[in-house]
Design goal:
The protein is 36% helix and 25% strand. With 259 residues, it is α/β, with parallel strands linked by helices. It folds into two domains: 177 residues, P-loop containing nucleotide triphosphate hydrolases (Rossmann fold), CATH 3.40.50.300; 64 residues, no CATH class. The strands form two sheets. A six-stranded mixed β-sheet has the order 6-7-8-3-9-10, sandwiched between helices. A four-stranded antiparallel β-sheet has the order 2-1-4-5, covered by helices on one side. A hairpin with a 2-residue loop joins strand 4 and strand 5.
C-alpha cells in the first residue's frame, strides 16, 4: 500500500487549481474544483466513469479551456498561453492516454524516437539511441525495441506509451485511466510502474482512475469526485473512513484488494 507523501520533495505547488468550472451545453461537468499537486506527489482523482475526470486533465494539459476558475501549472496560467508558449509548456507534461496512443505503422523504437526527433533536433544519433534504451530499460521492455505495437499485449503497449512520455523527461505526468482494460495482474504491474516513475523521474503526477486498487497503490493523496466536485480528499484510508453511503457504495464498486 502507498505510504502517504512518501516521495513529496517540497511544499512547492506544481499544479494549483481554484474554482474550476466546465460545461458542455447544459451539462455541467466540473462544478468548482480546487486542487494542489506538490513537487514529487502522486494525486489520484478517483470517480466513476463520466464524472469529469478526463475533462480535468485535458484542461490541465491545455487541450480544453475552462469556463471559470484558474489553472496554474509550473507557474503558468494555462489558458492564457499563446500557441508557441503552449507547445513549449506541453514538452514539460507527460500525457499517458488511456489507449496508449502509439503509431501502429511504427516500431517501438520509432514510436519512442518520434517525440525526441521532433522536439530535440540538436540530438545526435547516439544520444537518441541512448535515450530510447534508457526509457525501455526503465519500463522493463528492452526486448521489444524492434516490435510493432500490434505484436504487444495491452500491458506492454501501456508501458511503451508511458516510456514515450518519459523520453522528454517531463516534470509532470498525467495518467488517464492507466489500468483500464487490463487484467488484475497486469494492472498491478502498471501501478508499480507508476510508482517507479515517481521515484526515478521525480515527477508530480495526476492519476485519473475509477480503479480503487490503482488509487490505493499509487496515490499519496486521493481526491474523490462526485457530481463534478471533490467530495473528499486525503489518504486512501481517510477518504473511505466514513459511513456516508455515497462513499461506501463507491468502495464496494469494482474493488480488487492488492495483496
Amino acid at each position: 500500500m502507498k505510504k502517504h507523501a512518501s516521495m513529496i520533495e517540497s511544499d512547492e505547488a506544481m499544479i494549483v487549481i481554484r474554482g474550476l468550472e466546465k460545461s458542455f451545453g447544459a451539462n455541467k461537468v466540473l462544478r468548482g474544483i480546487d486542487l494542489d499537486v506538490h513537487k514529487g506527489e502522486n494525486v489520484v482523482v478517483l470517480g466513476r466513469s463520466g464524472t469529469g475526470k478526463s475533462v480535468l486533465i485535458k484542461i490541465i494539459a491545455g487541450l480544453l479551456k475552462p469556463d471559470k476558475g484558474t489553472v496554474k501549472v509550473l507557474g503558468e496560467e494555462v489558458d492564457k498561453l499563446d500557441v508557441k508558449q503552449l507547445q513549449e509548456f506541453r514538452l514539460k507534461i507527460g500525457f499517458s492516454f488511456q489507449n496508449s496512443a502509439l503509431y501502429d505503422s511504427m516500431t517501438v523504437r520509432e514510436n519512442l524516437e518520434f517525440p525526441l526527433v521532433r522536439n530535440r533536433r540538436n540530438l545526435s544519433r547516439a544520444e537518441v539511441d541512448s535515450a530510447v534504451k534508457k526509457v525501455l530499460d526503465d519500463v522493463g521492455l528492452s526486448q521489444a525495441i524492434d516490435q510493432m505495437p500490434a505484436e504487444l499485449s495491452g500491458g506492454q503497449r501501456k508501458r511503451i506509451g508511458i516510456a514515450r512520455t518519459l523520453i522528454l523527461q517531463p516534470e509532470i505526468m498525467l495518467y488517464d485511466e492507466p489500468t483500464a482494460g487490463l487484467d488484475p495482474i497486469t494492472s498491478i504491474d502498471i501501478n508499480n510502474l507508476i510508482n517507479e516513475v515517481q521515484q526515478q523521474y521525480h515527477t508530480s503526477s495526476i492519476i485519473i482512475t475509477h480503479d480503487l486498487t490503482c488509487a490505493k497503490t499509487t496515490g499519496d493523496i486521493i481526491a474523490l469526485m462526485l457530481d463534478g466536485k471533490f467530495f473528499r480528499k486525503g489518504s486512501f484510508e481517510e477518504v473511505f473512513d466514513t459511513d456516508d453511503e455515497r462513499v461506501k457504495s463507491f468502495y464496494d464498486y469494482n474493488f480488487i484488494e492488492n495483496v
